Predict the 3D structure of the following.
Amino acid sequence: MKFKDKHIIIPFLAPGILVTLFFIVIPLYMAIRLSFFHLESYISPAKFVGLSNYIRILHEPAFWNALKNGLFYSLVCIVLQVSLGIGFALILNEQFKGKSFVRGLTLLPYILPTVVVALTWQWMLDGNVGIITVLANKIGLGRINWLETPNLAMFTVILVSVWTWTPFVTTSFLAALQTIPLDLSDAAKVDGTSSWQRFFYITLPILKPILVIIILLRGIWMFNKFDIIWIMTKGGPLRATEHLPILTYQKAFQFYDVGGGTTVATISFLFLFAVVMIYLKVFPVED
Amino acid sequence: MKKKRKPLRKVIIYGLVIFISIYSFFPMYWMFISSCRAYKELFSSVSLIPGPFSLKSYINLLSMTKYLINFKNSLWVAFFTTGITLICSILMAYVITRYRLRGKRFILHSMLFSYMFPPLLLAVPLYYIFTKLGIIDSLWGLIISHTTITLPLGVWLLWGFFKAMPFELEEAARVDGASRIKAFFMVVLPLSLPGILTAGIFSFLLSWTDYTFGLIILSSDIKKTLPVGLATMLGAHDLNWGEIMAGAFLITVPLLVIFVFVSQYFVKGLTAGAVKG
């Protein structure tokens, strides 16, 4: 049954639609439009240049480096977050005292502001007196420059990203675990299966739909993640952690190359869109 | 055999639980004890045990920076973002669930679609528009920017909530002579308080913790929100890690307080896909 008195539809929809139209739809249209223009700055007149921004960007080694870094960063983050998150969820699903307290505790890294996470880890990884550096030195690894060594910087940023965003997977998976009928695993237990078998043949197949969504969302968010890398490394050292969002920011707000910046952002969006479409073809999601 | 295995299993589980707890909590512990450790020890001896205790970092932070102003800005922005988001999304989600609308699927899909936008794809044109309108470096610009993320989430979350609420309750109120608007305010809103609370918490959280939009929109020190202010303090003033950690701790406190009271709503919203990040 649907309601008939329609006079409230327009006034109820109007505020939301107007905000969406003026601050989401039109800006997105403008962003894509700006990628076909050349601007000296945000206040100078825009000159139409056709596809030349795209041609220029696709010829820049920095673009391909950023794409490669972004793919590496998001893929490794997804794999680690999902596997660690599932592991944590399985452990937290066991019987132990103080369960709800520990579950709350493990969510904390997720609610912290990214700035707090980034700065706290930077301090813990400080080259001289960072607690992790000191401990690593004590066990004979030497004084490690976590964020100043090109190859290591990406690894460090991934580690911190995994720490702060894994709880999303843990909590989602933990909630999904509660939906598995108990008699199902009990029946399997009677049949003499091991807990590994039960996990791979009962738990995972049942939770596959939710896992497909978790991986999709984490993938999208990690690919677009800007703040944590920007605060910790600014894309350095030697562009080792520079990915598409950072390249966009640098072009748009440091070099005032508005056309170039929006071009990188548009390509990045189209790329992500294509990947998501392929993913959804392979793993269909119902509403 | 079973009896022998059980205690060992218990020990392993408790061991793993303790490990996960330390792993999750240690950085926060370190942040806190670094913020109240005396200067000399902070950079000479690295000890897991707190102390020697000193409030100097907090005093320096509050006297040398615009921290309190930043705090007020953050509160202001988060408050208005949450308010605007709630008003728009409650009204929208309600109408979408209660009426046969032609563009309904389109609206819902575009809300989901917005999960995929790189924040910077929106930030660049918003900066461009705000420059043209002359509201760059203003809190209103930031509130609008935050609303572009929180509104789709609010509509999505409340749509699921209103959909699950039986229509008969409102109809009963209507039969009793209440107008549609009155039924909405007297019946629907009070009953959907948990959903509204969840949407509100997430809007507040997203706005309070945002760094990216703040970095782009705000430039002067007295306009900055906490996350942006704190990130630029590093290296800018004569500050050291003790003060930075004090600042980090003060941003975290309100979140912890809120979290203790609303963690159930938080988990509910999170599993309903209410978060972006």
